[in-house]
Amino acid sequence: MTEPLLVARDLRRGFASGGRRVAALDGVSLAIAPGETLGLVGGSGCGKSTLARVLTRLVAPEGGSIAFMGDDWLALGGGRLRAARRHMQMVFQDPLAAFNPRATVGGVIADALRIHAMVPKAGRAAEAARLIDRVGLPSGLTGRSIRDISGGQRQRVAIARAIAVRPRLVILDEAVSALDVSVRGRILELLVGLQRETGVGYLFISHDLAVVRAVSHRIAVMAAGRIVEEGPAAGVIAAPSSDVLIDLIGAVPRLTGIIRPERSEDRQDDAY
Ligand SMILES: Nc1ncnc2c1ncn2[C@@H]1O[C@H](COP(=O)(O)OP(=O)(O)OP(=O)(O)O)[C@@H](O)[C@H]1O
Ligand SMILES: [Mg+2]
């Protein structure tokens, strides 16, 4: 079996809220293999974003351990941390908040290449152009400010920036949730295509089960700070055991592949 890329064990993190303590992470364990997509679903407030922030070290856990690429991730510091950080990238729901709004599309990507010394200075513009093309953006957007492009375009820039540094793992927290259905479908296709090319692993977080189902090899279901169910995507959805997942399945009218939606003329009447 391949070495797991990421192994988290018994992660704990609470927050004080209105005089009481909320256990946002109440003993969460998970593993992601290279080239694998682990989908993470669960209702609002169950701890998904806290888990993303703890894994990326934006928030410190109060307990538990994380091994990333074989290192004790929580113990890494200095240059080794900087080098390893390159390999764990994150894409948020609202990329505007994650960018300097005055930066240009090309500038954002060139900056990522510079910070992680990916290509020599002379090659940066060409590599940025290649990435802009790879995520399906027109080259004419290169000089445009991040503020002046659409949400779907901005999400593609966020993905281009994340993959620019050739990470091993990308954590996507509601990364396509704000996008309309057709843009979302194209971005999911892009993510799957990039995974096939590069073997990147994804932690794909969403409250939308249909979207998670379309891209995930395995699915973990979270409720109240714990993973309550986990397994191969098709199996988990075919035989849900937790109330949360049963509710999430009930909320999706028809669970079909979003990556390759069937053409309307192929559809059987009884599919509805
Ligand atoms: N910085 C914080 N300070 C106080 N409480 C917090 C903080 N971050 C998260 N929480 C609380 O921790 C719990 C989990 O929040 P989290 O944002 O991880 O949930 P989520 O699953 O991402 O929800 P959503 O689907 O709405 O994004 C919630 O009760 C939330 O209010
Ligand atoms: Mg969240």
Automatic annotation (TrEMBL):
Q: Which residues form the ABC transporter domain?
A: 6-249
CDD domains reported for this sequence: ABC_NikE_OppD_transporters
Q: List the GO molecular function terms.
A: ATP binding; ATP hydrolysis activity
Q: What PROSITE patterns does the record point to?
A: ABC_TRANSPORTER_1, ABC_TRANSPORTER_2
Task: Cite the Gene3D superfamilies for this sequence.
Answer: P-loop containing nucleotide triphosphate hydrolases
Concerning Pfam families, the annotation shows:
ABC_tran
Q: Which domain of life is it from?
A: Bacteria
Which GO terms are recorded in the biological process aspect for this UniProt protein? transmembrane transport
- Which terms are listed as keywords in the entry? ATP-binding, Nucleotide-binding, Transport
- Report the family membership: Belongs to the ABC transporter superfamily.
Q: Which PANTHER family match?
A: D,D-DIPEPTIDE TRANSPORT ATP-BINDING PROTEIN DDPF-RELATED, TRANSPORT ATP-BINDING PROTEIN
**Name this protein carries in UniProt:** Peptide ABC transporter ATP-binding protein
